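Allow me, if you will, to draw on your knowledge of protein folds for a short while. I have a record of one protein: its chain in single-letter code and its fold written as C-alpha coordinates. The full record is reproduced below for your convenience:
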Amino acid sequence: MTLLPESLWLYVTLISNEEATMRVLKLTALSLILIPLALASANPTAAAPCAPNGRQLQPLHIAWIHCQNNYDEVVVIVNASGEDIDLAGYQLDSLVGQKFVFQPSEWNPNCCVIQAYGTLRIHSGPRNLEPFDDPRDLHWLNADGQPRRDLVWRDSYDVATLFNAQKQIVAHYEYGQP
Protein backbone atom coordinates (compact mmCIF):
# COMPACT_ATOMS: atom_id res chain seq x y z
CA MET A 1 0.00 0.00 0.00
CA THR A 2 1.42 3.38 -1.01
CA LEU A 3 1.06 6.03 1.67
CA LEU A 4 2.74 8.84 -0.25
CA PRO A 5 1.99 10.38 -3.66
CA GLU A 6 4.13 9.13 -6.53
CA SER A 7 5.83 12.53 -6.92
CA LEU A 8 6.96 12.37 -3.28
CA TRP A 9 8.38 8.87 -3.77
CA LEU A 10 10.39 10.18 -6.74
CA TYR A 11 11.75 12.96 -4.55
CA VAL A 12 12.64 10.47 -1.80
CA THR A 13 14.62 8.30 -4.20
CA LEU A 14 16.74 11.29 -5.25
CA ILE A 15 18.23 11.87 -1.80
CA SER A 16 20.06 9.63 0.65
CA ASN A 17 18.07 7.05 2.64
CA GLU A 18 18.72 8.64 6.04
CA GLU A 19 17.92 12.11 4.82
CA ALA A 20 14.88 10.78 2.97
CA THR A 21 13.59 9.03 6.07
CA MET A 22 13.84 12.21 8.15
CA ARG A 23 12.19 14.34 5.43
CA VAL A 24 9.36 11.82 4.98
CA LEU A 25 8.80 11.70 8.76
CA LYS A 26 8.75 15.49 8.94
CA LEU A 27 6.39 15.76 5.96
CA THR A 28 4.13 13.11 7.46
CA ALA A 29 4.01 14.88 10.82
CA LEU A 30 3.37 18.19 9.08
CA SER A 31 0.59 16.68 6.97
CA LEU A 32 -1.07 15.29 10.12
CA ILE A 33 -1.18 18.85 11.37
CA LEU A 34 -2.05 20.80 8.24
CA ILE A 35 -4.49 18.55 6.38
CA PRO A 36 -7.15 18.45 9.15
CA LEU A 37 -6.74 22.19 9.71
CA ALA A 38 -7.03 22.92 5.99
CA LEU A 39 -10.10 20.73 5.68
CA ALA A 40 -11.75 22.35 8.68
CA SER A 41 -10.98 25.90 7.54
CA ALA A 42 -11.73 25.41 3.82
CA ASN A 43 -15.44 25.79 4.50
CA PRO A 44 -16.06 26.54 8.20
CA THR A 45 -19.80 25.95 7.95
CA ALA A 46 -19.23 22.49 6.48
CA ALA A 47 -16.48 21.44 8.92
CA ALA A 48 -16.97 18.15 10.69
CA PRO A 49 -18.32 18.57 14.24
CA CYS A 50 -15.13 17.08 15.69
CA ALA A 51 -12.83 19.35 13.66
CA PRO A 52 -10.68 21.68 15.77
CA ASN A 53 -11.54 25.27 16.61
CA GLY A 54 -8.70 27.76 15.99
CA ARG A 55 -5.60 27.10 18.10
CA GLN A 56 -1.81 27.33 18.14
CA LEU A 57 0.12 24.10 17.70
CA GLN A 58 2.93 23.05 19.98
CA PRO A 59 5.53 20.34 19.25
CA LEU A 60 3.40 17.92 21.31
CA HIS A 61 -0.24 18.42 20.47
CA ILE A 62 -3.62 16.83 19.99
CA ALA A 63 -4.01 16.78 16.22
CA TRP A 64 -7.45 15.28 15.83
CA ILE A 65 -10.35 13.60 17.60
CA HIS A 66 -12.42 11.19 15.55
CA CYS A 67 -15.71 11.13 17.44
CA GLN A 68 -18.45 10.67 14.84
CA ASN A 69 -18.46 6.93 15.16
CA ASN A 70 -20.28 4.98 17.84
CA TYR A 71 -17.86 2.10 17.40
CA ASP A 72 -14.37 3.60 17.74
CA GLU A 73 -13.43 7.07 18.96
CA VAL A 74 -9.80 8.02 18.42
CA VAL A 75 -7.66 10.85 19.81
CA VAL A 76 -4.50 11.44 17.75
CA ILE A 77 -1.54 12.95 19.59
CA VAL A 78 1.42 14.12 17.48
CA ASN A 79 5.02 14.68 18.48
CA ALA A 80 6.25 17.18 15.87
CA SER A 81 9.63 17.52 17.60
CA GLY A 82 12.84 15.72 16.70
CA GLU A 83 13.04 13.95 20.07
CA ASP A 84 11.12 11.07 21.65
CA ILE A 85 8.82 12.14 24.49
CA ASP A 86 7.98 9.90 27.44
CA LEU A 87 4.32 10.46 28.32
CA ALA A 88 4.36 8.30 31.48
CA GLY A 89 2.31 10.15 34.08
CA TYR A 90 0.65 12.45 31.54
CA GLN A 91 -3.14 12.68 31.60
CA LEU A 92 -5.74 13.36 28.89
CA ASP A 93 -9.04 14.83 30.13
CA SER A 94 -12.37 15.45 28.43
CA LEU A 95 -14.56 18.44 29.24
CA VAL A 96 -16.92 16.36 31.39
CA GLY A 97 -14.11 14.83 33.45
CA GLN A 98 -13.25 11.57 31.69
CA LYS A 99 -9.56 10.89 32.35
CA PHE A 100 -6.93 8.77 30.61
CA VAL A 101 -3.60 8.36 32.42
CA PHE A 102 -0.58 7.35 30.35
CA GLN A 103 0.91 4.35 32.15
CA PRO A 104 2.02 0.90 31.07
CA SER A 105 -0.61 -1.75 31.77
CA GLU A 106 -1.77 -5.16 30.67
CA TRP A 107 -3.83 -3.48 27.94
CA ASN A 108 -1.18 -0.87 27.01
CA PRO A 109 2.16 -2.65 27.44
CA ASN A 110 3.95 -0.35 24.94
CA CYS A 111 2.85 2.87 26.63
CA CYS A 112 4.17 5.59 26.88
CA VAL A 113 6.93 6.90 24.59
CA ILE A 114 5.85 8.84 21.51
CA GLN A 115 8.60 8.71 18.92
CA ALA A 116 10.09 11.82 17.29
CA TYR A 117 7.72 12.96 14.50
CA GLY A 118 5.41 10.14 15.60
CA THR A 119 1.82 9.69 16.66
CA LEU A 120 -0.16 7.92 19.36
CA ARG A 121 -3.84 7.04 19.08
CA ILE A 122 -6.03 6.59 22.15
CA HIS A 123 -9.20 4.59 21.47
CA SER A 124 -12.50 4.56 23.34
CA GLY A 125 -15.84 2.98 22.53
CA PRO A 126 -16.92 -0.61 21.79
CA ARG A 127 -13.90 -1.36 19.54
CA ASN A 128 -11.71 -0.60 22.53
CA LEU A 129 -12.22 -4.20 23.69
CA GLU A 130 -10.24 -5.59 20.75
CA PRO A 131 -6.44 -5.93 20.94
CA PHE A 132 -4.36 -3.63 18.73
CA ASP A 133 -1.46 -4.77 16.55
CA ASP A 134 0.19 -1.36 16.33
CA PRO A 135 2.05 -0.18 19.47
CA ARG A 136 0.95 3.39 18.66
CA ASP A 137 -2.64 2.42 19.49
CA LEU A 138 -3.61 2.64 23.17
CA HIS A 139 -6.78 1.64 24.99
CA TRP A 140 -8.60 4.30 27.05
CA LEU A 141 -8.76 2.55 30.42
CA ASN A 142 -11.24 2.97 33.24
CA ALA A 143 -10.05 3.46 36.83
CA ASP A 144 -10.17 -0.34 37.28
CA GLY A 145 -7.61 -0.81 34.47
CA GLN A 146 -10.12 -2.28 32.00
CA PRO A 147 -10.78 -0.81 28.53
CA ARG A 148 -13.48 1.81 28.36
CA ARG A 149 -16.38 0.56 26.22
CA ASP A 150 -18.44 3.72 26.53
CA LEU A 151 -17.97 6.76 24.35
CA VAL A 152 -15.93 9.64 25.78
CA TRP A 153 -16.30 12.46 23.26
CA ARG A 154 -19.51 14.36 22.57
CA ASP A 155 -20.31 14.87 18.88
CA SER A 156 -21.39 18.51 19.05
CA TYR A 157 -18.78 20.07 21.37
CA ASP A 158 -15.94 18.94 23.59
CA VAL A 159 -12.53 19.91 24.91
CA ALA A 160 -9.50 17.66 25.29
CA THR A 161 -6.69 18.77 27.57
CA LEU A 162 -3.33 17.02 27.87
CA PHE A 163 -1.47 17.52 31.16
CA ASN A 164 2.15 16.57 31.84
CA ALA A 165 3.19 14.62 34.94
CA GLN A 166 3.41 17.93 36.88
CA LYS A 167 -0.28 18.65 35.98
CA GLN A 168 0.65 21.53 33.65
CA ILE A 169 -1.34 21.91 30.42
CA VAL A 170 0.79 20.96 27.42
CA ALA A 171 -1.92 20.62 24.76
CA HIS A 172 -5.52 21.72 24.30
CA TYR A 173 -8.04 20.77 21.61
CA GLU A 174 -11.53 22.17 21.28
CA TYR A 175 -14.19 21.51 18.66
CA GLY A 176 -17.80 22.45 17.98
CA GLN A 177 -19.94 25.08 19.64
CA PRO A 178 -20.71 25.15 23.39
User: Anything to note?
Assistant: Residues 17-42 form the longest helix (26 residues). DSSP finds two helices and ten strands in the chain. The two ends are 40 Å apart (CA to CA).
